[in-house]
Amino acid sequence: MKRRAYSLASLLLLAGAVFLLPTSQADTNSSKSAAGKNVTFSKDVAPIFFKNCAECHRPGEASPFSVLSYKDVRPWAKSIREKVVNRTMPPWHADPHVGQWANDRRLSPAEIATISTWVEGGAKEGNAKDLPPVPQFADGWAIGKPDLIIPMPEAYTLAASGPDEYQYFEVDPGFTEDKYVQMAEARPDNRKIVHHIIAFIVPPSKDARPRPNLSKEELQKLRARMEKESIFYRDGFLQRVKMDAPVYNDGCAIPESARRGRSSEEAGTLLCGYAPGMNQAIWEPGTVKKIPAGAKIMFQMHYSKVAGSEQKDRSSIGLIFAKTPPQKQLFTRGISNNHFMIPPGTDNFPVTACWTTPDDIHIVTFMPHLHLRGKSQKIEAFLPDGGKQVLLNVPEYDFSWQTVYYAQKPVALPKGTKILVTSTFDNSTKNKYNPDPTKAVRWGDPTYDEMMIGWIDYTIDNQPLPKTTAMKQ
Question: CB-hemisphere CA count at 13 Å for 446?
């Protein structure tokens, strides 16, 4: 559990929200006893759990118990109260003073008080007739029943031991016309080994230029030259940055000549993803992602060999297509820095990245992505007129919860706005999750290396869109 810093005022406010301050200890006991008898799971607590917790705490998900029934919740009552009162659960790491979020998971003081009082009163079930309708999930899909499910081409067998693996699987969905996706979800098959899934849209190649025929020797020389010039190298199934590659901790200062190589966009447009604690992509009606005719879907699979035995996986993605003409097309950008180096022993090391908007845009979602040394991330906008706006601030980043923050109202930014992403890293012994505080750290696929990305989903203003959408599935 990450450390949390509360002011005395905030602690008193939280305590006041959870407990009524009595005039005497006898009044306290009497009040708790009376309140505890009146608060039940069926009538008071289940509605809170169904609304705020069931997305993760239900059968088939990674959470350790389901909140859909009293018998599953009851053994966890004291733990639930502890996590709720200290606000560890539901997980939410954004600064409450910056931005307004449509998917804000935080419980209100009244909801916290209800759960706390329920546990203190014996965690009673109450009358089953008071139980609200249990949330329904279509075969485990958070987005509902998909119009189309696209699995990996075949099951992949992961060895019992060894380092993490990044594997790529390409699927041709056979689309002969453009498709517009209203909702998308990536769903792991084997949660024991799937660390994350990223599904990319790989458009059909527009480059029809003839390629010179190279001999085997010439091809080997070309590859060797490209590998020598690149900052990246292959380490088994993983891609990592060379330790002697040029260092630019300020990503805004990277010269154009050094920007060659892997970028967050090179694999294609991000369609959807899965990671621990990540909420699935559900966009406003009329806001869609486009899969062009002839495009393929690329699965990027990060496997961790933690099960202790050989495992198989055949993960999939589910798509719900737009049923009405699209109004806005959604694009994804990873504002990233691959050139940084975090010195050993540093506990608050800053790394930046930036991107200047080429169009007038509206940002719909934000998602920080760092690894185990990640400490915080702030995303700011520097406007062409000299103004400045903090878009997202996550002061205590937690790698276990890859939260996507949905703006309650899309954030308008004019063309020429510089978006600055600032992340800090704790590579010291203070960080209990740190794999090795004695080593300098560079970018890399495995979680014992680091990444630095501020993902955004955005729409482009005044973009022409088709007046109809293909309805054939």
Answer: 18
